[in-house]
Design brief:
The protein is of the alpha+beta class. The protein contains six helices and eleven strands.
Length: about 280
């Protein structure tokens, strides 16, 4: 089973790449898979990037934003199996390498993607606020301005099951299946509970569970169940600290009851029927 990198994984890629590539110049770009580039065409993409300096790297949800010196932004989504890895130019690309950014001082960033679902867009800075899908994203799940009150107000505008709402990137950005399962266990809320059935204290507990689980996962450098590695090619550690995700039949860390798996919207939900209601 392949699972998309979520906020903690993307944040870890950012943190490992940023100190290495900040202020570095992109001398040239080699494209092996043009389908990765969604805007503009591959020839324009490579021409516009050559000579640009990386001035900053930011993140919103699961998107990486490389800010460039000519008032442009490289928007990257890793999708299922995308990797951005910092390498020496002496290292040959592997067969899954889709794009190489050749930097100064003999360094490179290799974008590897086994499934080739990853996407890149090169846009002007003044396009960013109106650029889909970024413009439809909710606040980042770890944004300091996302207070409990704002979270609850946004939650009260939503309908349906709470698991589906957490996965909806227009509600808040960055949560995928792994951390939605972990968050709901931490909050003691059943994944099939309807949002309108949550009491005030449960909504606040859900907010704090979002912050706690994602912050812990960032500290542990993300979850490596199969493909994910950080910008140095190293695996994360959160997979050793999961409470419920992919632990069907194993004992709940709180009560010892076997973890249950159900299907919701094509995804597997893992939960404890004793601790989550």
């Amino acid at each position: 089973m392949i699972e998309m990198p979520e906020l903690p994984e993307v944040e870890t890629v950012l943190r490992t790449l940023k100190p290495k590539v900040l202020s570095r110049k992109i001398n040239r770009v080699t494209v092996f898979n043009e389908k990765t580039i969604k805007k503009p065409d591959a020839a324009t993409f490579t021409r516009c990037l050559e000579g640009q300096q990386i001035t900053d790297i930011n993140r919103h949800g699961k998107y990486l934003l490389f800010e460039l010196s000519f008032s442009m932004v490289l928007v990257v989504h890793l999708r299922m199996t995308g990797r951005l890895i910092y390498k020496d130019s002496s290292v040959s690309p592997d067969r899954y390498t889709c794009i190489i950014f050749h930097l100064d001082e003999g360094k490179e960033i290799h974008f590897q993607d086994v499934r080739k679902f990853g996407t890149m867009y090169l846009i002007r800075c003044d396009e960013l606020d109106s650029f889909p899908p970024l413009c439809i994203l909710g606040p980042d799940a770890l944004d300091p301005q996302l207070t409990p009150d704002l979270f609850i107000k946004r939650l009260e505008r939503r309908n349906g099951q709470v698991k589906g709402v957490l996965l909806n990137q227009s509600f808040i950005a960055g949560i995928g299946n792994i951390y939605a399962n972990e968050i709901l266990w931490t909050a003691g809320i059943h994944p099939e509970r309807r949002v309108d059935s949550l009491r005030s204290w449960e909504k606040e507990r859900l907010y704090h569970a979002v912050r706690e689980v994602l912050s812990t996962a960032v500290k542990l450098r993300g979850t490596s169940l199969r493909d994910y590695v950080d910008g140095d090619g190293n695996r994360g550690e959160y997979q050793h600290h999961r409470r419920v995700h992919r632990r069907e039949g194993e004992p709940c860390p709180l009560c010892g009851h076997p973890i249950i798996r159900i299907k919701q919207g094509g995804r597997s939900s893992y939960y404890c029927k004793i601790c989550q209601n």
